[in-house]
Amino acid sequence: MLFNRLQSFSDVLPFFYKLAFVLKEVITIKANFVLNSIMMILTEKESFADAVYDIVRRIPPGRATSYGAIAKAIGYPNFSRMVGAVLGKDVSSLGIPAHRVVNSQGVLSGRLAFVTPTKMQELLEEEGVIVVDNKIRHWKKVFWNPIEEILLD
Questions:
Q1: Would you give the distance in Å from CA 105 to the centre of its chain?
Q2: Angle at Cα 52 formed by Cα 79 and Cα 116, nearest 5°?
């Protein structure tokens, strides 16, 4: 074991200094991420939601995108779960086609946020999207990349 190889207290001290330094770096990185997340939530929550809604409104019928693609497109690449939280509310009354947003594999992961567990699939199928076992068939063809598609507008 490590401690059996250490000969004296002077051998232990550098090890603990290195360990403390590494732990400090890890804690600092995690703390900064959490702090940035909290600041975003407190100061930009409404504009974040508006940006999500703007992207989702642009998804054409018969196409779908992912939470992560939307997060990247609005400048928050690590906030795909936050995109999901925004769309997890009842947004159909706002004219937001949330049924066109799925996870990165094409799975209808947000289906339980709809009126019934099958409503999301029904809406997609009405637009010609084939769904099998809660997953979009031919996902790569159906996928709408907002970064590429919006630039072409």
A1: 12
A2: 95
Q: Determine contact, residues 97/58, Cβ cutoff 8 Å.
A: no
- Specify the pTM: 0.71
Residue 84 confidence (pLDDT) above 70: yes
Total residue count of the chain as it appears in this document: 153
* Contacts with 107 (C-beta within 8 Å, 6 or more apart), sequence order: 134, 135, 136
Distance CA 97, CA 105 (A): 19
Between CA 16 and CA 110 the distance in angstroms is 46
Quick check: 74 and 112 in contact, CB under 8 A? no
Q: What percent of the chain stands above pLDDT 70? A: 73
Residue whose entry in the numeric block shows the structure tokens 């600041």: 39
CA-based nearest residue to 54, from 70, 37, 72, 75 = 70
Return the structure tokens found at 47: 């504009």
- Inter-CA distances, 82 with 9, 26, 153, Å: 49, 23, 26
For residue 67, which of 35, 95, 105 has the smallest C-alpha distance? 105
